[in-house]
Amino acid sequence: MDDRREPAAPAVRVSDRDRDEALGVLTVALVEGRLDPHEHEIRAKRALRARTDDELAALTADLPAPAPTRSDQDRKDLREWLAEWRYWLGGAVIMSGIWGARCAQKGELTYYWPVTPLAVWAAVLIAIAIWPRDTGDSDEGDGGRTVAR
């Protein structure tokens, strides 16, 4: 029997921030009634002594991740919206390049046609930014979640 195995990946040391995140998960579990106070205390002490990510993962493996806070969701939405503007800029560069190549081929400046699709795209992105957000916890369709804005 050949017992050649890949060496296990070395454990990664955790930071204070990692410990704080694990303590946050444990605290939410306590508040939700998933952990009793005694078990929370034991796990919290182990989290504070944890040195590797494996040790922390074992303490929270049977608990669901807490739902993102409103501010976390807002930051995520902003990152996604700014990423859409980067795509818009990439589209502007590509369309302007096509327009410029066509003008060079004809030997004259022609109507800058990229203005139309870029204006429509920009209008949509601006509308997404100013459109009222659904902040209620409705059970309709998407469970009250909002589309990235």
From TrEMBL:
Signal peptide from the UniProt entry: none
The DUF1707 domain, residue ranges: 12-64
Top-level lineage group: Bacteria
InterPro entries in alphabetical order: DUF1707_SHOCT-like
Transmembrane spans: 111-131
Keywords carried by this UniProt record: Membrane, Transmembrane, Transmembrane helix
Residue ranges the record marks as coiled coil: none
Protein name as annotated: DUF1707 domain-containing protein
